[in-house]
Amino acid sequence: xxxxxxxxxxxxxxxxxxxRVVSEEGGSLEKASEAVARALTLGGLEYLFGTGHSMLxxxxxxxxxxxxxxxxxxxxxxxxxxxxxxxxSYLERxxxxxxxxxxxxxxxxxxxxxxxxxxxKNSGPVEMAIELKSRGVExxxxxxxxxxxxxxxxxxxxxxxxxxxxxxxxxxxxxxDAAYTVSESLRVFPISTIVNTFIVxxxxxxxxxxxxxxxxxxxxWTSVNVPGGKERNRAxxxxxxxxxxxx
Length: 247
Description:
The mean pLDDT is 96. By secondary structure, the protein is of the alpha/beta class. It has one domain (6-240): Glucose-6-phosphate isomerase like protein, domain 1 (Rossmann fold, 3-Layer(aba) Sandwich). It has 11 helices and 7 strands. Helix 1 (6-24) packs across helix 10 (192-213). The chain is globular, with a radius of gyration of 18 Å.
């Protein structure tokens, strides 16, 4: 029998974590997909938000071949760590920052939002959830429940993301994100971006099935490198150029 390679161990970690999400969070995933399907059917958008590396998940869902046309990432380069990762760490704890972001956006009625935060404790994601909910947006929170429940909230509300979101999905990500133990004091392989991306694409894929099954035509981007892709996308660009900020 061959000795497992590092790559095979890491692949097993990813597989096991995602398998737990699928088996243990199925009900919440379905509720989230229903919420997204309902919002899109009623003319709303799917907003996506995270801070730091979690913002990459919001960006991943945007203008993506095979992804929802009406996915709207709430992007802020300073929160993503550009030009300073240290500054981003301060800003995600700054009361009022997420509120200012929301107030700079025209929120479309009947919309839904997915907010990603492993710890779920800082002002950035919690304030974003509360501000969006106050504007009628249904909020889906993706977080690490076991990890988050060990932490004290660091925001003006004294709440964590799982306590303010309408629908909560536990991503099963370990404390501190690093999932692979090299030695007793050394852990590597941050797994959250992989798992959170899987969750968001799963929610959206199922939402497309629900929309189709209810007799509506799902709006999905097509790769420009396949026949008809440019033409299909061009129609969506004309339709939503004034609504989707980053198009």
